[in-house]
Amino acid sequence: MTVRLLNEVNKLSMNIFLVPYMFAVTLLFQGCRMQTEEKGEGGKDKQTQSQSQIGDQIPYNLSDRVTYALPPILDEISGLTFVGGNADVAYTIQDESGIVYVYDLKNRRMDHEIPFAGKGDFEDIANDGEQLYVLKSNGAVYSLPIDKKHRANATKVYEGLLPKGEYESLAYNSMLNELYVLCKSCKVDQKKGQATGYRLTVNTDGTLTYRNEFIVDLSQATTVDEKQRRKFSPSAMTWRASTNEWYIISSVDKLMLITDADFNPKEVVRFSRKDYEQPEGLAFDGADNLYISSEAGDTGQGVIYQLKPTK
Fold first, then answer.
1. Is 216 a residue whose pLDDT tops 70?
2. From CA 304, how far away is CA 279, in angstroms rounded?
3. Which domain of life is it from (predicted)?
């Protein structure tokens, strides 16, 4: 009887000792399993992979692209546009001279030049199919016919339509027949967590008139990307006709912001300086390909990147 009792006591003591030990082992195993599941193929961290796969939340893969190296005259390329959606020819500007450089992407050569002004700080270009519009950093807008024989004295200059500020982004919305201009740095936006823009109506006689302003609320951008600061310095914008969305890129912030038609942020896509040295231009062609132009920076030459839609 005494021996049996001692055996039972020993078993009970052993169980009491083993229970916490087995529990600890189980926790350790589960922890290791979870850590393993958080790794990608080859043991790479998933978060690291996600950060490197830029553009995976939009229908373009920013790391899968066709690169067009540009001649030295376009080392400072600051904008591009496609007339009639024709992807073979890009109408480009650089931010030091009042000349539109028409570049043949198909044959990778300069086609011709269209002078429209003297030297200046020209930041973006757009078109409505008949006229080219060029934005100067002070907010002045230059209008000129799309014509090889165009002469600079035929250029119309619209000054004073926009408040004083620094501007780099210009785009045309064919649905509304309007030009959109977005502040890079304007007094009205200081300490407000917003970027203000202005709409200009393209009248039937080809003249431009001020319509109203719009706001990109950066506090909304933080809801789609917690890392987004309440400060944004746009360097280019373009309208995607197929989805009625706006694509806005910032070279300083190293990101691209996608919004709906009313400029409500939908997606923030980040990139590294290695991926895009100094992006200053955005445009779509008729096939919905996205183009990003980048100044030379440390790479030695200006480039245009073509990104095909993935879906």
1. yes
2. 9
3. Bacteria
Give the bridge partners for 303, in sequence order.
Answer: 69, 294
- Among left, alpha and beta (phi > 0; psi -120 to 50; other), residue 221 is alpha
From the DSSP assignment, how many helices (H) and strands (E) are in the chain?
Answer: 3, 20
115-133 pLDDT, tens digit per residue, is 999 999 999 999 999 999 9
The more confident residue out of 10 and 47 is 10
Q: What are the Cα distances from residue 32, in Å, to 20, 45, 72, 182, 215?
A: 18, 14, 55, 50, 48
Question: Helices marked H in the chain — which ranges?
Answer: 2-37, 46-52, 218-224
How far is 236 from 63, CA to CA, in rounded Å?
19
pLDDT in tens, 180-196: 999 999 999 888 888 99
Composition of the chain by helix, strand, coil, percent to 5: 20, 40, 35
Q: Report whether 192 contacts 210 (CB < 8 A).
A: no
